[in-house]
Design a protein that fits this description.
Layout lengths: L1 E5 H12 L13 E7 L2 E7 L3 E8 L1 E4 L1 E6 H10 L4 E7 L2 E6 L2 E6 L15 E6 H12 L13 E7 L2 E7 L3 E8 L1 E2 L7 E6 H10 L5 E6 L6 E6 L2 E6 L8 H4 L6 E6 H11 L9 E6 L3 E8 L2 E8 L1 E2 L5 E5 L1 H10 L4 E6 L5 E7 L6 E10 L6
Antiparallel strand pairs: 1-5, 1-7, 2-3, 2-6, 3-4, 4-18, 7-8, 8-9, 10-14, 10-16, 11-12, 11-15, 12-13, 13-27, 16-17, 17-18, 19-23, 19-25, 20-21, 20-24, 21-22, 25-26, 26-27
Helix pairs in contact: 1-2, 3-4, 6-7
């Protein structure tokens, strides 16, 4: 086995495949990357039974063959190689990597012990990689971090007609984003699954400039989702369970509506929250007189800032939110203004981006936060 490849292409390919490697594994071969050189292409694969990553790049392949080496060690080597054409070869039981006058030798593992990558699930359609990456970023911030509740650490993907809906919730907030895509066939079935949020974020960022991304999904229990684009393919095992339906949660009965400039409000939240204890709420007092007063404090340390805001309620309304959750929601929006639909303290509040002109929703992303019941 022998191949030559540009350093930049090798670094990118190994880095992509290494994303699937487990941090720790009792099975040594799962820490390996499988390199397969043949017919002018180098294929690099990684797999840990929960996720797989595979990438193909052009390379000179005078001698075809396969080799399995420790993935993270190979990645470390690739990062320090000089900028040159990299010569790689299997010499007995040692894999050599040479760039210029720098040469490394790596021990190999038996390729026959490496598990076969999972077969791709059914093809469902195509989505723009940039729009998909942006949507994942807007929603994944609401996913939980508690691994004892796996389904809440994921992002739910629902495919229905020409609409793809992403949703995530950690019980205290809920984010939803819809985007258009091109389904396979006019009568494609509705299918959904919950994908590990952290890995989905990494994958979407990696594919963000790859143009159209092919989506494959098997929504049955223990199913898989796969993404393919620009010579890259990755699969993820779906999480068990489903998120609560957001349509009923997002349907607020007779809310008071407030609208404020998004960026000035985010700046004010950051300033006022400086005096708040960790996880302490920040209070927002909306007034029909066209202002919102932000307040936070702990013991004798207090902060306040007043901003202009429209409010259609008959009386003042005070609500309070976790400042980190509120900032996450504000930063995920792109519109110049943010619209609050409010039911009162201790109840749900819906945030969405709106245009300057008519306060109509200008982007298909919404965040549901639960306000703190006790206000100080």
């Amino acid at each position: 086995m022998e191949f030559q490849i540009e350093r930049s292409a090798l670094v990118e390919a190994v880095g992509w495949a290494a994303k699937s490697l487990p941090a720790h594994s009792p099975v040594p071969v799962l820490g390996g990357l499988l390199l397969d050189a043949c017919a002018g292409r180098l294929r690099i694969s990684g797999f840990d039974y929960e996720a797989s990553a595979e990438i193909e790049v052009p390379a000179r392949t005078p001698v075809a063959g396969q080799v399995l080496v420790l993935g993270r060690r190979l990645l470390d080597i690739c990062r320090v190689l000089p900028d040159a054409v990299i010569q790689c070869a299997l010499e007995g039981s040692r894999f050599t990597v040479q760039g210029g006058d720098t040469r490394f030798g790596l021990s190999t593992m038996p390729t026959q012990e490496y598990p076969a990558l999972p077969e791709s699930p059914a093809f469902r359609g195509v989505v723009d990689s940039g729009e998909f990456a942006a949507a994942v970023g807007q929603v994944a911030i609401a996913a939980g971090r508690d691994d004892t509740l796996p389904v809440l650490t994921g992002v739910q993907i629902r495919l229905e007609g020409e609409s793809m809906t992403l949703a995530a919730s950690d019980r205290y907030r809920y984010a939803v984003r819809g985007l258009s895509w091109k389904p396979e066939g006019a009568d494609s079935e509705v299918v959904e699954g919950v994908v590990p949020g952290r890995r989905l974020t990494e994958i979407s960022r990696s594919l963000a400039r790859s143009g159209p991304v092919r989506v494959r999904l098997n929504g049955s229990p223990g199913g898989l989702i796969a993404f393919e684009g620009a010579g890259m393919r990755t699969t993820l095992r779906l999480l068990e369970g489903r998120l609560p339906r957001h349509d009923k949660l997002f349907a607020l009965d007779g809310p008071a509506v407030a609208v404020a400039q998004r960026e000035p409000l985010a700046d004010a939240v950051r300033r006022v929250a400086v005096v708040a204890e960790p996880n302490s709420p920040i209070r927002l007092d909306f007034s029909p007189q066209g202002t919102v007063l932000l307040q936070a404090g702990y013991e004798d340390d207090v902060a306040a800032q007043r901003l202009t805001a429209t409010f259609d309620g008959a009386e003042d309304m005070a609500v309070a939110f976790n400042p980190a959750y509120l900032l996450d929601a504000l930063h995920s929006l792109q519109a110049p203004q943010v619209r609050f639909e409010l039911l009162g303290p201790g109840r749900r509040a819906l945030l969405s981006g709106v245009s300057d002109a008519d306060h109509a929703m200008s982007e298909d992303v919404r965040h549901l936060l639960v306000s703190v019941r006790q206000l100080t």
